[in-house]
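Lecture 7 notes. Example A: sequence first, then its structure tokens.
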Amino acid sequence: LRRWGGNGRRPGVRVRLRYSRHAEIGARPLIALGMGERLCRARSFDTALPLLRIALDGDLMGLRSRSRLALTASEAALQLGRAEEAEHFLSLVEETQKLRPIIERRRRELDSLSPNPAVAKLALEQLAKESTGLPKARLLKRLAALLATHDLASAVETYEQAMRLARRDRELSEAIRSDLLELLEAYGGPASQAPSAAEEPDPERGSQ
């Protein structure tokens, strides 16, 4: 399974070929497991989730615990914003005490998708405190979008913090900057003065 292409960031050609091939021969559970996990690492969650479902329904021959696989599937569903599916996968492991800390974090991630802004805001703030680096930047990006509906100053500050954390990921930092520009333009602010990722100091280096 390790030979199935990719550089750890995007699925390789061989991964995509095997994903196409499994439709012809049927995705056996272990094949689905390997492909699904690799696609999750590449953040191709929409492609990974159906494969993880197949793996969960099959015989994993002891290579993975069903509870940990269910947690992986719940993460993929959460990344896609599919709260009901994430809830279903979490229900499969609810009684697994040794995974309680991970389950509780997944619950907070589920709360962050709540249609209730107060619930979502609290969950995002808690998750951001527990996170570092790029995961924290993604959470702050979402939090800033939520704050933008009622607290412009806090939203701008949160976007800027997210941009500093994301400076090593060009795609993410540009997405954050784009959101900040759009916000400033909506409020008639100086969008042209929004900082670029290259201008922002690295907070993790600065603390050293």
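Example B, a different protein, same format:
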Amino acid sequence: KNTTQRGQLLVEASKLTWVSGDQDGALIHLEAAVEADKSQTKALLPYFQTSIEQSPDHVQAQALSARLETILLRAKDMTALDRFWRSQLEQATEEGDKIRLSCALGDLHRDELQRPESALAFYLGAADAVSSPKSRRQVVESLFGLVEQDNQVKGSEAHLERIIREAGYWNDLERLFRLRISRSQTPAEEAQLYVELAQLQIEHLDNVE
């Protein structure tokens, strides 16, 4: 009860501090409120988002975003983090931000929220945001994390293979083939996969240093 009251008082203090014009002081009070009572994370988002939107440059906005992310992760409020990252993704204009946020959301939905279908959608969004197919390293690693899970999403392997081939990540394609071999159900299926793997090595891997 005492921690809840302390959290509520600090939230009220942050509102008054914000109104007085001291945004940074208000954010400090909000951080302290969450430290005292993790349920106070709901009070964080509107203030931090306003500060981010009013930031004079991208560097400061990124610093504020990272600060809020750290608080929400420490408080284990994945729903609030999901809401924050979604709002940031909607406003993102730079390619790097779109890829980072899409992959972060995918990882969050895959590992914390247990929503593999929406995780796949975020990863594909990240892949679409990349101007060059050869710059999809982060997307491939995140998608591999989804494909390697037991409860695979239908189509995830096919999407991963397409992205790998477009990027020319032949070592990753070998990794995918070996994963398929480990999961093969029949000797005939396993034999066909070994043939495909051998063909890949001849065409793309033999000359790789």
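Note on Example B: Residues 187-205 form the longest helix (19 residues). DSSP finds eleven helices and no strands in the chain.
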